[in-house]
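Revision sheet: structure tokens.
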Amino acid sequence: MLKTPVRLEIASRRPKPPVASECPSRETGGTTIAARDVRGFRVVEIDYPAGLELSRHSHPSAHLLYVLDGEYMEDSASVSETRCQSRALRYLPPNFAHSNHFESGARCLVIAIEPEMFARVASLNSSLEYPASIETPVSMWLTQKLYREFQQGDSSSTLSLEGILLELLAETARHAGSGPVRIVPEWLRVARAYVEANYLRALSLADIARVAHVHRVHLARQFRSYFSTSVGEFLRRKRVEHACHLVSTTNCSLAEVAIDCGFSDQSHFSATFRKMMGLTPARFREMATAQDRPAAKLAYAGK
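Predicted:
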């Protein structure tokens, strides 16, 4: 989906969308909104129109795709169809054959990892050989910071972008699977999607099992087997991800964030947040605020 010599064809079973204007990423079938070259990476914001289908293709370089708005479906020979929704981060290794369908359209931040950079990390970690959906509070926070810096477009932001991209690549290597991806049963994908859509509600294992039409014991066992986490841990992680967003982008009190994110009180919220993130919500907010300070202030401080 980026600057590769691969020629893609739009499937004919749906009406073809309007032809995108000339851009550095012609073969994506989408419209490039902005692009930045950072040492070791190329970052492109692309708008994919509704109804676009990209037939089976691959890219010589590894990619990270962060969904800003909308969603898309990815299909491959080795992995069951993967739904990539808003705020999802998807990793694709080099030469990974896949197809894409943008039924309702999507806007994505697409990151091409240059071969030299990829080789440095891959030599230390074999997990980058496999595709993965990276869904951790840290990755969510990093992608949000990345997009804010990407929008700045000045020389100071380029240095910050490089640091964030390296952190994001390290987080990807840390959490990507170390073996071939298993095909997730449809009922289990339904269960996970239900949790993702309702994680701020008071959910029980029985509620989720009822939606998936399986016994709650079977759900609990298979969920851990396929996703390497329990249903409860996954639910808490989704709540902490949402809390990261609220803490770093709003002025809501920590008590308000705790209630909004489904925690019983601020104490429970703070303990869970610290366990998953390695720092308190207050410290997280301080760090996020520091990241957002104008570059002019930093330049002045350095004089």
